[in-house]
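STRUCTURE:
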């Protein structure tokens, strides 16, 4: 059985850990609020952008554009958005596993990766896939300038026929305790379904064909931007949940160690009293 001094030392160590995890939880909670607001604000814009593109595609009819080229999927690129730091529970593992499932049994020589976040880079560094770009995830507010480098990279790869399709892998924010790993086909643009196409009485000026060609790059930027803000909110939610659980576990451990310390202290006191009584009886 550990001595009272050893137990007291462990209690101090666990209390220090509890302070750290609680502070990290509070920081993640503050960042989550801002990230959640950005994600929720971006969703209506991204949804309306999809509706506009669907209506333009329906009105433009048959249109030829480099970003709409339909080719047999042989060479594929994946944009994987991970976290810059750990201590976020299973967040990074879930995103990376979703990316590996999406890659499946493809020939590694036909897979190219664009990675955002150190955890994504660390995971795929040991995999037999070509990493064409490594980008840091923005630590503060996300702006369109943060995503244009990524969207320009994948657009150029697709337009030059270096890849036949581009997929986006990220964690969609549901709640602070739930993040859904998501795989979205970014290029070529998926043909809109009948449910997505509405038929308002709009007259496009300039023509729907010209507008569609101009808005396609912006549409790709919007998709990547939404994925990035969703990933940031998911990361902060996962970190807050993980640190909250760690703080609770530390509190429970402190209670257990305090009980053990009291028992050890009581046993030591009982032992000393017994020795004193025994010595007094021996002197009689």
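SEQUENCE:
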């Amino acid at each position: 059985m550990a001595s009272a001094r050893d137990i007291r030392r462990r209690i101090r160590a666990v209390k220090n850990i509890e302070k750290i995890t609680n502070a990290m939880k509070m920081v993640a909670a503050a960042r989550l609020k801002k990230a959640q607001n950005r994600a929720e604000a971006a969703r209506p814009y991204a949804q309306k952008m999809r509706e506009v593109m669907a209506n333009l595609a329906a009105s433009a009819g048959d249109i030829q554009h480099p970003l709409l080229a339909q080719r047999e999927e042989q060479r594929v690129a994946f944009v994987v958005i991970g976290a810059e730091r750990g201590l976020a529970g299973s967040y990074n593992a879930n995103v990376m596993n979703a990316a590996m499932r999406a890659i499946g049994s493809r020939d590694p020589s036909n897979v190219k990766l664009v990675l955002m976040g150190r955890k994504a880079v660390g995971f795929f560094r040991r995999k037999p896939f070509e990493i064409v770009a490594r980008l840091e995830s923005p630590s503060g507010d996300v702006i369109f300038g943060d995503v244009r480098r990524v969207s320009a990279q994948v657009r150029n790869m697709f337009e030059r026929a270096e890849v036949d399709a581009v997929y986006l892998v990220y964690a969609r924010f549901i709640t602070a305790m739930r993040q859904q790993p998501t795989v979205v086909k970014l290029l070529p643009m998926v043909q809109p379904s009948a449910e997505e196409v509405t038929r308002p009485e709009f007259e496009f000026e300039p023509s729907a064909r010209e507008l569609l060609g101009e808005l396609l790059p912006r549409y790709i930027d919007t998709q990547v931007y939404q994925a990035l803000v969703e990933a940031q909110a998911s990361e902060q939610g996962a970190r807050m949940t993980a640190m909250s659980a760690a703080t609770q576990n530390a509190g429970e451990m402190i209670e257990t160690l305090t009980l053990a310390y009291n028992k050890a202290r009581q046993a030591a006191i009982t032992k000393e009293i017994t020795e004193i009584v025994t010595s007094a009886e021996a002197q009689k």
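REMARK: The chain has two domains: 4-9+243-283, 22-242.
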